[in-house]
Amino acid sequence: MTSPRPTGSSVGTSTSWEVVIGLEVHAQIVSNSKLFSSASTQFAGPPNTQVSFVDGGFPGQLPTLNRFCVEQAVRTGLALDGQVHTVSSFDRKNYFYADLPTGYQISQFFHPIMTGGHLDIEFDHGESKRIRINRLHLEQDAGKSFHDQHPHKSYIDLNRAGVGLMEIVSEPDLSNAEEAILYLKKLRSLLRAIGSCNANMEEGNFRADVNISLRRPGGALGTRCEIKNVNSFKFIQQAIAYEIDRQKTLLEASQPVVQETRLYDPSLGETRSMRSKEEAHDYRYFPDPDLLPVILEPSWIEEVRASLPELPAAKQKRFMETYGLVYYEAHLLTEDVSVAHFFEDGIKHLDDPVAGPKLLSSWILGDFFAKLNKENLSIDASPVTPSMLAALISLITKEVISGRIAKEVFIHMWETQKDPLQIVELHNLVQIDDKSLIQETAEKVLADNPDMVAEYHQGRDKLFGFFVGQTIKQLGGKANPSLVNSILKTLLSADRN
Ligand code: ADP
Ligand code: MG
Fold it and tell me: Of 135, 471, 484, 497, which residue has the fewest beta carbons closer than 10 angstroms?
């Protein structure tokens, strides 16, 4: 762990500015029912079919806290290495909006369930920076308004009203768009690993508000703007770039940045003012009289901690130490739990515990991922299973086939789901290890190319690769490459004498 980078990116010309970013993430809890009612949380159900009287704000209805949602918030808080509080409570955040039938959102303002966590983001080559997390609190989601279904009517769908959210608030420790995106990806990977949130931006269950300001390097924090609900990494990047420019222009013209909530419009590539920033007192927060405080037993919190699965950061470290992978490989293999599981399932079936894992890693990240992407398949839907891929790797490490032939076998395996050895036999792809045959072929290649041999002897070392390639090609691509190499070396040095 290295210390944080000393400064953020400088965006000034004559005089430089430092960018300061803090993120508020709304992560929807994976649960069957809502935070305070038994209505279903199923995504994309017919409008207004998953609304209980509590969610609809009917008078006299009482909320009942969903224990499972509390547990998910505790798991997440612990995974973020925060302090989970034995006492937390719910408050009413009052505001009027059509998608909020009660006229208030139940949230945790005064006593959140967790404070003081952190997430370490990593740059290439493993350099890292700690981003502090101010708090994680539980709250309800609002319903959804549709303004584009009718020329002069708006529609409301309350299916989402009352679904449990975890709001995860970072300290303003991020210094540019790259860091903001690394943070969000890291958080997404963590939430998915523990299963508390699907963290799918397109389905709207992982939404980020971006707070951004500029300041003189090392100076006091500047006035921030908050960009609401930017729903893709690309738009977050664009919104930040636009906002940096806008604020810089204002500041350099000695004009104030107004603290406000802004909206990013992807079609224009601009942010525009939505409303001036409300202060906490505008919401007239007060403790919700319908709900008791949440009291957690310390021993239960410890049980939950002990039951957490291995987290991505720990997995990444273990992959590097156990399998000799470099940071980049371990990072890509552990970002998504299903990929990590695929890799470790494959490991179990390998023949060579030393060379195998590295080769398996590069196959997964290379040909295998390329094929999944091309076919637009998730790893769980892959026709090639971990044991099949491991069997292919074992054929390479046992020198039955070359890496080059393995690419061909892989394609057959993908299409037919046949065992790789069966494919090798069926297509007669077994590696040629016959030294005299290789020698004969290599001699012929050299004899056919006297000019190149001469050039090679004059110092064009690169031509060696050409001779190797030609020899392998003449043997139908099946010649053992290391034998071809050594035989050609011997022939060429004998030739020189
Ligand atoms: P509010 O509740 O009004 O949104 P908070 O103080 O809770 O305000 O901060 C919300 C987010 O804004 C946090 O992620 C925080 O890190 C970030 N933030 C606070 N001050 C600044 C600033 N000057 N520049 C950029 N981000 C900031
Ligand atoms: Mg806010």
Answer: 497
pLDDT band at residue 185, thresholds of 50, 70 and 90? very high
Please enumerate in sequence order all residues whose Cβ is within 8 A of that of 361, keeping only pairs 6 or more positions apart, or say none: 323, 325, 329, 333, 343
Indicate if ligand 1 lies below 6 Å from the C-beta of 211. yes
- Per residue in 337-358, pLDDT (tens digit) is 999 999 999 999 998 888 899 9
The answer to whether residue 27 scores a pLDDT higher than 70 is: yes
β-strand 83-84 against 155-157: which pairing, if any?
unpaired
Instruction: Note whether 23 and 154 are same-domain residues.
Output: yes
CATH value at residue 447: 1.10.10.410
SS3 360: helix
Residue 477 has a pLDDT of 85
Q: Name the residue of 24, 137, 247, 262 to mutate for ligand 1: max ligand atoms within 8 A of Cβ.
A: 24
The answer on pLDDT for 10 being more than 60 is no
Does the C-beta of 170 come closer than 6 Å to ligand 1?
yes
Model pLDDT, residue 15 = 64
Instruction: Note whether 27 and 144 are same-domain residues.
Output: yes
Q: Are residues 212 and 272 in the same domain?
A: yes
Q: Is the pLDDT of residue 12 over 50?
A: no
- The interaxial angle of helices 312-323 and 327-334, nearest 10 deg, is 130
**pLDDT on residue 496:** 62
Distance 155 CA to ligand 1 centre (A): 32
Please report whether residue 8 resides in a domain.
no
Average pLDDT estimate for 113-134: 93
Domain co-membership, 316 together with 237: no
* pLDDT tens string 395-410: 999 988 988 899 999 9
Q: Is 10 a member of any domain?
A: no
- The verdict on the CB of residue 8 being under 6 Å from ligand 1 is no
* 492 beta partners: none
Give the chain's domain count. Answer: 3
Distance of alpha carbon 468 from alpha carbon 312, whole angstroms = 42
Which region among 132-136, 187-191, 202-206 has the lowest average model confidence (pLDDT)? 202-206
**CA distance linking residue 313 with residue 21, whole number of Å:** 23
Nearest atom (ligand 1) to Cα of 169: 14
Residues of the domain holding 161: 19-300
User: What distance in angstroms lies between residue 24's CA and the mean position of ligand 2's atoms?
Assistant: 7
